[in-house]
Amino acid sequence: MPPTEHWWRDAVIYQVYPRSFADSDGDGMGDLPGITARLPQLRDLGVDAVWLSPFYPSPQHDAGYDVADYRSVDPRFGDLGAADKLIAEAHDLDLKVIIDLVPNHTSTEHEWFRAALAAGPGSPERARYIFRDQPANSWQSVFGGSAWEQVADGQWYLHLFDVSQPDLDWGNPEVRAEFVGILRFWLDRGVDGFRVDVAHGLVKESSLAEWTGPTEILKDPDPDAARPPMWDQEGVHDIYREWRAVLDEYPGPRILVAEAWVTPEERLARYVRPDEMHQAFNFPFLVASWQAALRREVIDSSLAATSAVGAPTTWVLSNHDVVRHATRFGYPPVEGRMLGIGAGDPQPDIGLGLRRARAASLQMLALPGSAYLYQGEELGLPEHTTLPDDHRQDPTWERSGHTERGRDGCRVPIPWEADAPSYGFGPSDASWLPQPASWAEYALDRQRDVPGSTWELYRAALDLRRSHGLGTSTLTWAESSEEVLAFRVSDVLVLTNFGSAPVSLPAGVRVLLSSEPLVDGQVPADVTVWAQV
Ligand code: NOJ
Ligand code: MG
């Protein structure tokens, strides 16, 4: 591999959601051989790395974020040989591989939890989890309902997520040692990094103090509110310092990426201090709605917070936990995160959503730092907003008493070929969530080599981003008003029109790329343009 010491500082990292990316065996569930076979297409798109959501053995009560064995592969997805092959082929294509590490909780089917149940109260096996004789507080699970569950002998265990996801006790040295071993297991197999699930949750306030405020971490948290005792406690930082030292022993660099729903951004930046993680997802950017002032504000505050600690900023618009941005932007602006959408809910303006999504993505891909893409966004894929409720699998739907539809709508298997069964997701019709009838037009084979398609827009943007060094450049604002945001990066002017009337470009610039065609040389509404100055 070429010298890539700081590859992560401006990398474009593509999130693969293994169950929904590509199915090699026709069982309707995506798998590792399916991913491996499609890696060349990601190379063609021009990304630098892939991040894989969990593929470990799991009862799949939370789509694999309930891990039963951290050192293996769920037979639904393949085996360790298939993981090795995926890593090797990615590296041959000069793609880095980041895997998902889920340290806050195991599955109830993990051997540790089985042993904890068998060994009984007071045992060292129970001390790996958070067991109490009574619920220590009235904390609520992020997915709804109580965060405490009683077992047969009368004790209770804490689960911040699903009842099948018992929280580990990170005060226990055995837990810490085990995860260092897991890191090494995968580092030895060649992975380039870890996305750390619920990175702000591992350590709880030591008295498990009462908290009756929202436990919910996936909505926009209020920066002024008191910090809940289950999130963003000081002790988490020691863990990441220890992990960083382990990663630094390996040729690399290998990276750690925090999934931490923490505000304000100065607190989030503490996860990416020089001896901790490399990156943290920028959720304030993700939740900002389509308004010039809001987007400028979040770009400024993100750049300031990370530069204070010397870390690159990251940017992200979609992932497997949120409504896809091509759909979010098809609604009037909402505060914070949108929840799942059902057939009976108001439906988005698909055309407007896609137009704004393309403009937002083109703006994002010019920003200095590292950008995350979620599989399907390069196809302009919307959320499945009419998924029949009886197909829903996200535990949120049941645990919220059918009040929150949850995240299935952004997890539907993606379309590769317009005219193939399951749109080429796999060799059969099977698809673990049904795909909407309208998805043929989004298929990759309808977009490749088609001028103006969303896939070609992303490909061209990634190419120009690299050749103009945008990811390592410094941003300077050129213009900002309620209607227009414009900034300079490297020798490129990036202008987005948030207003309704067309706007002109400065004289003498040469248009490199635009999210929609210009009209009479002007930038129409909801369009981003890159122009060489
Ligand atoms: C965050 C993951 O992204 C989400 O999908 C999962 O449900 C929770 N963490 C719990 O692991
Ligand atoms: Mg399969």
Plain-language structure description:
The protein is of the alpha/beta class. It has three domains: 4-104 and 174-463, Glycosidases (TIM Barrel); 111-158, Alpha-Beta Complex (Oligo-1,6-glucosidase, domain 2); 474-532, Sandwich (Immunoglobulin-like). The chain is built from twelve helices and 16 strands. Helix 1 (32-45) runs parallel beside helix 2 (80-92) and helix 4 (173-188) runs parallel beside helix 5 (236-248). It is globular, with a radius of gyration of 23 Å. It binds 1-deoxynojirimycin and magnesium ion (MG). The site of 1-deoxynojirimycin (NOJ) has 9 residues, from loops.
- Gyration radius, in Å: 23 Å
Distance between the termini: 34 Å
Domains, number: 3
Report the helical percentage.
10-25%
- Please name the CATH architecture of the largest domain: Alpha-Beta Barrel
Return the average pLDDT rounded to an integer: 95
| Rough outline | globular
How many DSSP-defined strands?
16
Oligomeric state, counting identical vs distinct chains: single chain
The biggest sheet, with number of strands, parallel, antiparallel or mixed sense and barrel status, is:
8 strands, parallel
Strand proportion, as a percent range, falls in: 5-15%
